[in-house]
Amino acid sequence: MKTTIALTPEHLEKTVTIGAWLSNKRSSGKIAFLQLRDGTGFIQGVVVKNDVSEETFQLAKNLTQESSMYITGKVVEDTRSAFGYELQVSNIELIHEAVDYPITPKEHGTEFLMDHRHLWLRSKKQHAVMKIRNEIIRSTYQFFNDGGYVKIDPPILTGSSAEGTTELFHTKYFDEEAYLSQSGQLYMEAAAMAFGKVFSFGPTFRAEKSKTRRHLIEFWMIEPEMAFVDHEESLEIQEQYVSFIAESVLENCKLELDVLERDTSSLEKIKAPFPRISYDDAIKLLKEKGFDDIEWGDDFGAPHETAIADNFDKPVFITNYPAEIKAFYMKPAPGRSDVVLCADLIAPEGYGEIIGGSQRIDDLELMKERYEQHDLNDPAYKWYLELRQYGSVPHSGFGLGLERTVAWLSGVDHVRETIPFPRLLNRLYP
Question: Per the database record, which ranges form the Aminoacyl-transfer RNA synthetases class-II family profile domain (predicted)?
Fold first, then answer.
């Protein structure tokens, strides 16, 4: 019976055949231990000399790392392994012999591993990170589909920018200027006016010359937009969503979290509601902590966000930032024209901002003022203004950065390990 490693528990005490690669091996005289992977998981295959043909045993002893095969054996319980099962091998059919596989079971430098990212993905830890990423994506679709949201795909090539054009990739669109999208938000607002509650999930691009562990040039965003939803309701949806995906990872990625040696006690605390601190109070807190150079009106950097988050044991919302440092479309706070109805959700353990969101301006005249202030009178923005002209309603939305969220929940240090093929300031290969 042909099966996969992930499904072997369903075939306990039965003989199965698995298409697999050899990730590692060791042998001791009359027994060979094969560490096998097939994309769905990892399992140990045990080859005992007295239980197989001489040809099969010699083949097992001579297998090279990353050689591919069909391997047949009986599934048995193995309480010593994290997976809980192993394969008592009876036959091996070699498909392809790999020679001089470059990533050996020893320490390699980061640049070497990044140069071989197409192969590094096969390793146990990288496999675990990608499985956690997949679970976050799966549970994201579940959360929004169950909540009555409609999936909408905004364009990647755009004629306008959501937050200014200084950090966008410019390209020629025949005889026009175009940009790679930095956010689908403006288009999602249009979609929300048609469908009520919508979400997008797709790649975004920032031409930001940053080399920090939190930044990528190309990354993926989940961007919900909701008509008839104010800022307070949006915050509640955000904390429910983050709690949901964290719970899903804890429940469905136990093995992967174990492989990554992730301390799950911190993840178990991720339950709504989340604490909140205003920008005003965050400035006071930072000054108390010795950040004498921070002043009201300054944006927060990574050290500031970490210092704020360290005061809480779960994600924290920083609310009501100054209007001057936020995007043109954010609605002013009632009674305060100097701050806007927005929030950044800061993850604990130094992982920084994972969500940015706000209530959007729904008043036509105020949006016209913002257009003047930000010099947005280009025809490319005409359609966005019309959303306030024809049936405008209160609406809010947010964007969650997938890679930062994967890094946080899986506990890896750098976002370059949270996307299959990272695009960094100095890296476009492989």
Answer: 130-430
CA 425 to chain centre: 19
**Predicted confidence band of residue 199 (pLDDT cuts 50, 70, 90):** very high
Residue-wise pLDDT tens digits, 234-284: 999 999 999 999 999 999 999 999 999 999 999 999 999 999 999 999 999
**Are residues 234 and 400 in contact, defined by beta-carbon separation less than 8 angstroms?**
no
- 2-96 adopts what CATH topology? OB fold (Dihydrolipoamide Acetyltransferase, E2P) (2.40.50)
Confirm if 198 and 225 have CB atoms less than 8 A apart.
Answer: yes
Dist. CA 347–CA 246, nearest whole Å: 12
Strands 197-205 and 218-227 come out as antiparallel
Ranges of each domain in the chain: 2-96, 117-417
Are 183 and 200 spatial neighbours (Cβ–Cβ below 8 Å)? no
CATH number belonging to domain 117-417: 3.30.930.10
Residue 156 DSSP SS3:
coil
Q: Please state the rounded mean pLDDT for residues 151-174.
A: 88
91-133 pLDDT, tens digit each: 999 999 999 999 998 899 999 999 999 999 999 999 999 999 9
CB 306 within 8 A of CB 349: no
Answer yes or no: are the C-beta atoms of 408 and 349 closer than 8 Å.
Answer: yes
Q: Is the per-residue pLDDT at 400 higher than 70?
A: yes
Nearest to 398 by CA among 198, 101, 204: 198
**What does each C-alpha distance from 104 to 65, 418, 420 come to in angstroms?**
8, 21, 20
Task: State the DSSP H helix or E strand holding residue 124, giving kind and residue range, or none if neither.
Answer: helix 124-146
How far is residue 93's CA from residue 70's CA, in Å, rounded to a whole number?
Answer: 5
pLDDT on residue 165: 61
305, 289, 411: which is closest to 355 by C-alpha? 305
- Buried b or exposed e, range 286-296, using 16+ CB within 10 angstroms: beeeebeebee
Distance between CA atoms of residues 162 and 157, nearest Å:
13
Contact 393, 227 (CB under 8 A): yes
| 70 contact partners, CB below 8 Å, separation of at least 6 | 17, 18, 19, 20, 92, 93, 95
Q: CB–CB of 357/399 below 8 Å?
A: yes
Phi, psi (5° rounding) for residue 246?
-65, -45
Residue 62 pLDDT > 90, yes or no? Answer: yes
Beta bridge partners of 330: 360
Report the alpha-carbon distance of residue 85 to residue 12 in Å, rounded: 8
